[in-house]
């Protein structure tokens, strides 16, 4: 009985990854190009999300600042999820919805990229960060699922929407991790070519 549940989890995850390729191939290419354009111009990537998406934001920033699968110079990336003093002071003094928005306004610059991660697309703190990015001249890469939620409705034409075609949070998060690894690989490829 337990084995059947495990098999079902693996099967559903594998099937979604295959199905998601059609929806994500072109947006992934656009997202990679946007990040590389920003980095080449001296910009950086700001990443945010809540819960598991916060962990994904930190994972992505670490892969850029340190390295992904091969040696290269560090790349500019900041996870807006890691400074507990900043996060708690904003949440306490203002409201939780502004925890990323105020950081985008403080350290974001025109030409940077915001990686906004929300499995539902409805996270108020992520929505506020995207609005701040738009006002600052920062392009957004929205990583969502479930049709994109409210986030899909506020994206600009210059933004990139990477929406996993599924409704279950666990499956969306699994594809998000694959998307982040594709981003890292593509960024390294465009910056360094085929060299190991």
Looking at this protein, list some descriptive labels.
Rossmann fold, 196 residues, 58% helix, 7 helices, globular, alpha/beta, five-stranded parallel sheet
Note down, in words, how this protein is organized:
The protein is 58% helix and 12% strand. The chain is α/β, with parallel strands linked by helices and 196 residues long. The chain has one domain (2-192): 3-Layer(aba) Sandwich (Rossmann fold). A five-stranded parallel sheet has the order 2-1-3-4-5, with helices on both faces. The protein is globular. The N and C termini lie far apart (45 Å).
Q: Helix and strand layout, with pairings?
A:
Elements (H helix, E strand, L loop, with lengths): L1 H39 L4 E4 L3 H14 L11 E3 L4 H10 L7 H7 L5 E5 L6 H13 L2 E7 L3 H6 L5 E5 L4 H24 L4
Parallel strand pairs: 1-2, 1-3, 3-4, 4-5
Helix pairs in contact: 1-7, 2-7, 4-5
CA-atom Rg in angstroms: 17 Å
Helix coverage percent: 55-70%
Structural class: alpha/beta
Strand proportion, as a percent range, falls in 5-15%
User: What top-tier CATH class fits best?
Assistant: Alpha Beta
Average of per-residue pLDDT values = 97
Output the strand order for the largest sheet: 2-1-3-4-5
CATH architecture: 3-Layer(aba) Sandwich
Number of strands: 5
3D shape: globular
Biggest sheet descriptor? 5 strands, parallel
Oligomer: single chain
What is shown here, in short?
58% of the residues lie in helices and 12% in strands. The chain contains seven helices and five strands; from the N terminus they run αβαβααβαβαβα.
